[in-house]
Each structure stands twice: as C-alpha cells, then as structure tokens.
Amino acid sequence: MAVLAFLTGYIIPFVLVLSLLVFVHEMGHYLVGRWSGVRVTAFSVGFGPEIVGFTDRHGTRWKLSAIPLGGYVRFFGDEDASSKPDAEGLSHLTEAERAQTLAGAKLWKRAATVAAGPIANFILAIVIFAVLFTVYGKMVADPVVAEVRADSAAAEAGVLPGDRLVALDGAAVRTFDDVRRYVSIRPETAITVTVERDGQKLDLPMVPKRTETTDQFGNKVELGLIGVVTNEERGHFRLVTYSPLQAVGEGVKETGHIITGTFRYIGNLVTGRMKPDQLGGPVRVAQASGQMASLGFAAVIQLAAVLSVSIGLLNLMPVPVLDGGHLVFYAIEAVRGKPLGAGAQEIAFRVGLAMVLSLMVFATWNDISNLIG
C-alpha cells in the first residue's frame, strides 16, 4: 500500500507534469525546425529505451521512452539527441540532403529552431496563468499594514500599523502580494520602502532579514522578510476577476515575475545571501508535484506553469548540450563568419555534459539530504 500511495501521490503527478512540459518544449523545436525545412528523424518524450511509438509519413519516429526526465527532437544530420552535428555523416550527404539538416539551414533559422523550445515553455506558462486567472480569478489584498513584528526590519525602520506601502525602491506596488514577492527574493539587501501615513509619504530604508520558514507541507524555505502582516480588516481581501485579454496580460506579468525571481535567486546564491541547499532537483520536483496534487487540479496546473518557466530558463543557460549553448555557438559563428571547428565543439559538448550532470547530482543530493535531514 505504501508503494502504491507513493506512486499515485508523487511519481505519477511528477511524470505527467514533466511529460507535458517536455512535450511542449520539444514541439517548439519540432514546429520551427519543420518550418525551416529541416527533416526530423525522432521526437521523444523521455530518454532511454522506447516504450511505445510510431513513425509518421514524414519519417519521424514519435516515441515515449523509459526515463521520464526530459526528451529530445533529433534532426536529420545530428550525431545524437543533443543536436550535435554529425561531422562525418554530413560529409557524405548530397547537397539536397544537407539542405534538410539543421547544420545546413541558414544561421537565423537554426537559432530560431533552438530558441523555439524555451519560448514554447514561456508561452505555455502565460497560457496556463491566463486560463487560471480567467476561470478562478485572483485573491488580492491592499498593501496596508495590520501588524509589525517585533525586532523585524520594518519595526527597526519605523513602520506602523495602518501604514500603506506604496512603493519599493521607487516602484509602485498595488497589492500586499507585490510586497511579499519583492521582499522575499532580497534577503540581506538594502531596500527603500515608501509608506503613506496621514496623507504623507515617507521613505524608510531597511534590510530584509534572511529567515527560514516552513510552508504548509512542512518544507523549509529561506526567504527575505521585513516583518509586516495584513489582515481582512486592513487588507480588504477580495477576488479579482479578469477578462481573457486582461488575464493574458496578468499571465505575462506573472511569468515575468518568475523569471526575475529566478535570476535574483541565482544572484543570491553567488553572493551568499541564500544557501545552495535551496536548489531543487528531480526528487524535490516529484515531491512538489505530489503535494500540489493533494490541493487539487488548479494547484498542479499552477505548478506546471512555474516549472515550465524554469525549464525554459534552464535550457537558455549558455552551456553546451543545452539550447543556450547552441545559441552561443551560433553567435560565435555570426561574428567569425564560420562555425567553430568540430574538435572545439566536441570538447565544449563534453564539458557542458559534465556540468549538467554535476548540477543534477548536486541538486538530487540536496533533495535527499533535505528529505532525510
């Protein structure tokens, strides 16, 4: 029973969510690649041995593979699933055949084909958020302080109950969630909070304190906090509904917030403002999928949107074997007027693969350590 509960509660939601995101990502590559005249030999959700599949009339093998931790589109003329050109194989192709390879396409078409995967993930996130906002609306609260925690950054800066937070570092805020989102990714970073009190605006400098909190599932999370709380009376909690067009705009904003937060988090890791044990891998994603599944369909779909943005950003990292690495190669080719040599590309791919595997091992070790710790 325990094994069955683990499968249905964690593994199955994880596999379904990840498979959806991988399919959309690879479909971006596939559609733009086909539009560019490139032949596709394989479209796989998952890696490893094929479980089930079929070959379409264009010669593309569509398959579901055994290891559900990614996927790939393999173009004609590629050496492997990482889209590394098969230098030796390309040399034996006719001019007409070479024109159907990714390596034989114009530079801008290659770049568009590679960038289409992450872009598809961003579009999926926007669509998901737009649908959620249209169907369910969004609960918001005014950024009015009901309570100031003792010994907090806000208390030290002189924030008082009844103050309305109107700006953070000069940027206007509309809701209390705007404040939470901005502050949480800026631990130990000096900010200026503008409050409105008795009709006057006051600029109050403060430094959010790095604080370890526990979410509703018992997971430990490190955030920046200034120590202000709102309530129903002060915040006027309400459900805001959106038209489909307005919801798309909100979806774009929400996706932008995730992108900004991700870059800020990476910066916090580099500067030591956050610990690297917050970095999650497949185990934590599986755990989060199961936890969201317990809250209902909408929560799972929202998690899918967040993960879709994360997958898009991860693939844009300038690391060989990832989409961002290919784009770096194309940028170099645009400057040099010719691609890097096969030897240099081979070394770069090996280094990139080692980096990706090391990151996965580190993230998985963090996941396991957090689970048993």
Supply database-style keywords.
single chain; about 375 residues; two-stranded antiparallel ribbon; 12 helices
Helix content percent band = 40-55%
Structural class: alpha+beta
User: pLDDT average, as an integer?
Assistant: 84
Which sheet architecture does the biggest sheet show?
4 strands, antiparallel
C-alpha-based Rg, rounded:
24 Å
Give the spatial strand order of the biggest sheet. Answer: 6-5-7-8
Shape: elongated
Distance between the termini: 25 Å
List unreliable stretches of 5+ residues: none
Estimate what percentage of residues fall within beta strands. 15-25%
DSSP helical segment count? 12
SSE arrangement, N to C: HEEHHHEEHEEHEEEEEHEHHHHH
β-strand number: 12
Structural commentary:
The chain contains twelve helices and twelve strands. The two termini are 25 Å apart. It has 373 residues and is α+β, with helices and mostly antiparallel strands. It is elongated and about 80 Å long. The strands form five sheets. A four-stranded antiparallel beta sheet has the order 6-5-7-8. The model has no long low-confidence stretch (mean pLDDT 84).
Structure, briefly:
It contains 12 helices and 12 strands. The protein is an alpha+beta fold and 373 residues long. Strand 9 (209-214) and strand 10 form a beta hairpin.
